[in-house]
Amino acid sequence: MSSSTVDPADPVFALHRGGKMAVTSTVPLTSREDLSLAYTPGVARVCEAIAADPALVDDYTWVSHTVAVVTDGSAVLGLGNIGPRAALPVMEGKAVLFKQFAGVDAVPVCLDTQDVDEIVAVVRALAPSFGGINLEDISAPRCFEIERRLDEALDIPVFHDDQHGTAIVVLAALRNAAALLDRKLGDLRVAVSGAGAAGVAVTKMLIAGGVNPDQVVVCDSKGIIGRHRTELTGTKAELAASTNADGRHGDITEALRDADVLIGVSGGQIPEAAVARMAPGGIVFALANPTPEVHPEVAARHVAVVATGRSDYPNQINNVLAFPGVFRGALDAGATRITEAMKVAAADAIAGVVAESLTADAIVPSPLDPRVAPAVAEAVAEAARRDGVARR
After folding, report:
1. One digit per residue, pLDDT tens: the chain, 392 residues?
2. How far apart are CA 324 and CA 380, in angstroms?
3. Which residues, in sequence order, are bridge partners of residue 193?
4. Distance CA 57, CA 37 (A)
5. Cα gap 338→300, rounded to integer Å
6. What is residue 136's three-state secondary structure?
7. In angstroms, rounded to a whole number, what is the distance separating the alpha carbons of residues 153 and 155?
């Protein structure tokens, strides 16, 4: 990108000049005594104590409240594979959201490799400096293997936010939309448009939260996923085996026939005629950003509740409702991993914040609602203890 694309008068560039974050000290450094305590010789005593008992690192360093935000720059926003340097402004933004909403310190780590083995090796080597790993903007299907391998290798939480953050907020929103419409999750017929990282995670999360897998139909760019698709492997093969019990064939138009819910996480455009085939009183979450799969005003002609990923329409499905509180709760509990029950608990907590004041235009809290992160953190920590993955 050439310097000619930078407009110094643009407030976006003005805000980003010099970056959005900095390191500051939490202790005084104004005297020789301060220096002797914070650094040499005093620091040596702390080092020796941690060497004797590694668990003390949580009490005497930043590990218990700090996560790494790790990317390879391969799937950044809607920009695609723009690489690690161009991804850094997004990772800085993620880090300041962690701090603002949940008091979690976060460090952007942008890796100049897109090799799965190298990414896993680097993150494993960095892990002693952090209490958790937030994987970000890593393309599918590599993101599935990277998360799985790191989750198996490390004794700290590993969380790919593009998958699970989106899925948590979608489940929260669907819980409240169903409650508003006096429906039960287990009765809803759900069509998911998109089988990438977000689509797979959303499908799994909805099923974990109470949606009947037999009533779920997932579509990728080639159409409906099912047992008739013999070329499928990996996560898509798993979806084929566990969803689409009716054996539907065809494209998203067929998937939406008589569906109660559309979850759009593909970025592809869905025609109005397809939405019109949905059952009366339906729900549309068109989450592609900045261009939803179905324009909200078009969707509203045919369904009762509409949500998007955009901030300029009601019901924004925004990951910031999930990830700060999820990590805050996991860190508070000293969790060794993030379980499905912890994710469902996070979704329930988000839904609960506005459960008593639901309207069709307010099925999820505002991303700026200060009640969200504490509620999510408490629920996640409790679930971690119930699941036996908490160390405190």
Report:
1. 445 688 888 998 889 989 998 999 999 999 999 999 999 999 999 999 999 999 999 999 999 999 999 999 999 987 889 999 999 999 999 999 999 999 999 999 999 999 999 999 999 999 999 999 999 999 988 999 999 999 999 999 999 998 999 999 999 999 999 999 999 999 999 999 999 889 999 999 999 999 999 999 999 999 999 999 989 888 899 999 999 999 999 999 999 999 999 999 987 899 999 999 999 999 999 998 888 999 999 999 999 999 999 888 999 999 999 999 999 999 999 999 999 999 999 999 999 999 999 999 999 999 899 999 999 999 999 999 999 999 98
2. 11
3. 219, 264
4. 17
5. 36
6. coil
7. 7
Backbone φ and ψ for 5, nearest 5 degrees, come out as -85, -5
Q: Which amino acid is at 264?
A: G
Rg over alpha carbons for the chain, rounded to the nearest Å, is 22
Which residue out of 94, 204, 236, 343 is catalytically annotated?
A: 94
Q: Which helix (H) or strand (E) holds 253?
A: helix 252-255
Query: ∠ at Cα 301 (299, 303), nearest 5°?
Result: 65
User: Does 94 participate in catalysis according to the annotation?
Assistant: yes
Element (H, E) at 334: none
Closest CA to 191 of 75, 304, 293: 293
User: How is residue 167 written in tokens?
Assistant: 């899925």
> Please, what are the domains in the chain?
16-156 (3.40.50.10380), 162-392 (3.40.50.720)
Task: Give the C-alpha distances (Å, rounded to integers) separating 137 from 69, 78, 97, 170, 254.
Answer: 10, 10, 16, 18, 31
Which residue among 20, 39, 184, 236 is the active-site one? Answer: 39
